[in-house]
Amino acid sequence: MAIPTAAVRSQVVVDPPDILETDIAIIGSGMGGGTLAYALRDSGARVLIIEQGDFLPVERENWSFDAVHTRGRYKNSAAWHDATTGNDFVPGNYHYVGGSTKLYGATLPRFRECDFGAIEHVDGVSPAWPIEYADLEPFYGEAEHMFWVHSNKGEDPTDPWRSTDYPFPGVPHEGAMARLVESARKQGLHPFSAPQALDRHPGGACVLCYTCDSFACMVDAKGDADIAAVRPALHAASKNVRLLTNSEVTRLDTDATGRQVTAARIMHRGRPIQVRADRFVVACGAINTAALLLRSASGQHPRGLANSSDQVGRNYMAHVTTFFLAIDPRRKNDAVYQKTIGINDWYTAGPTNKYPLGNVQGLGKLRGPQAKMGQPRVPMPILDEVTKYTLDLFIQTEDLPLPENRVTLNAKGQITLSRRETNVAAHRELISNMKKVVRKAGFPVVLTRSLGVEATSHQCGTAVMGDDPATSVVAADLRAHDVDNLWIADTSTFPSSAAVNPAITAAALSLRLGHSGSLTA
Asked: Residues in domain FAD dependent oxidoreductase (predicted)?
């Protein structure tokens, strides 16, 4: 991973004054905030990105299974509290320039066209969005080019219509994944090339290594928000975008009316400072965005900033997810990069399933240290050997928004999550279907591990968008109903979670906001 260039470093505010002024303050540099800064880079407005962390360090441990997974070297979030079990846990939520995308799996599917409408599920109805797929379609295309997305048009039967093709062809399947793809097609399924954000085009830096999913890329070949959005924004000729790192925003203050945010209170390397701006955008990720708004309660906003609806923190969704390992004990899996498959044949209701079941996609090749997290009692030498034979998949089902599934702050001010999973029966049916598929493909042994509340990488829904201020936090243009100069640009605004990774939808929403002119008018 390359050290930021001098041109990028020149736009980093190293020693801020006690009061720092700008036109637009963006709190968070992940997929939502970083992409928005990119969209505004030539707008003429002074833009300041505020990031709690720093650039992720460049070191050999970036690609170490032991450092990343056994010792959790890059986990730098404060512990959160699980209200169900009463236990604390450190989430996979990262504070670096680029946010959690620095260690994400780089799978960037669009939401399906139907995902923007109401959908009946086994446990209830997934609500409609106040916008349609067509409203985001051109911005999906722009985001796919920004983040170097590789896939093949026409392979996925649920892929929505598109005005532009994928910028790069899909990554070829290899090893055991290629065998599964061939067999699945013979079984009548439609496996497709999963949309991957990689610098794999001619002249690109990607070498298709096995340290991609859940690792930082040492050669800057993963399309994360740092490399594909923040650094280009800082490097733009206009020099309108600056970055303030190591800065935790503790609360937002408003004027006496409560209709205008006047300042962000920040702890910068242990020193209190303020950022004052004409317009503020919160893009901290669904959980931290909700927490910031709740911490910003005041006389004008007693339940939390922009929370007259009492919806801030509610409707938390994170997908119902399972690690699925198919094993052929007679043959090793020689795949190095296996995040190449997607299966959506049961994504919507159909002739064999009454309700939508979800999405299947490839996982990065598991090794012993990752398997140890799910099987702590099994000796590492055994896990190292077993994982040589596994084909690793990730199964996810849509999670419904429930008011009681929420983010709150406990008496210590600690983030607390309350969550009851929905559509579990549909998820089990999808797992059962995939067991049949892999066994027919020659993988007789299947191991699964379902993920719990600690699986927060697909978090969304805590500051939902809608037309009615009584039941939503922001309007369709992402502006808060209760505050005139506050927008939210991350997955917290999602009315539903769909059943695919949310990142590129967050990016498309930010591009739509950035190009709308509402932040620069």
From this structure: 23-296
Q: What share of the chain is helix, strand, coil (3-state, %, to 5)?
A: 25, 20, 55
| pTM value surpassing 0.90 | yes
Those residues of the chain that have pLDDT short of 70 are: 1-2, 372-374
Q: Strands across the sheet with 445-450, in order?
A: 192-193, 341-343, 359-362, 390-397, 320-327, 445-450
| pLDDT computed for residue 350 by the predictor | 94
- Specify the amino acid at residue 144: E
Say what the pLDDT of residue 1 is: 52
Q: Which residues contact 24 (CB under 8 A, 6 or more apart)?
A: 40, 45, 46, 47, 48, 277, 278, 279, 280, 281, 519, 520
pLDDT at residue 90, as a whole number: 94
Q: What is the DSSP letter of 78?
A: P
pLDDT in tens, 110-134: 999 999 999 999 999 999 999 999 9
Q: Is 375 exposed, middle or buried (0-12, 13-18, 19+ CB in 10 A)?
A: middle
Give the gyration radius of the chain's Cα atoms.
22
CATH architecture group of domain 5-516: 3-Layer(bba) Sandwich (3.50)
Q: CA 78, CA 286: separation in Å to the nearest integer?
A: 15
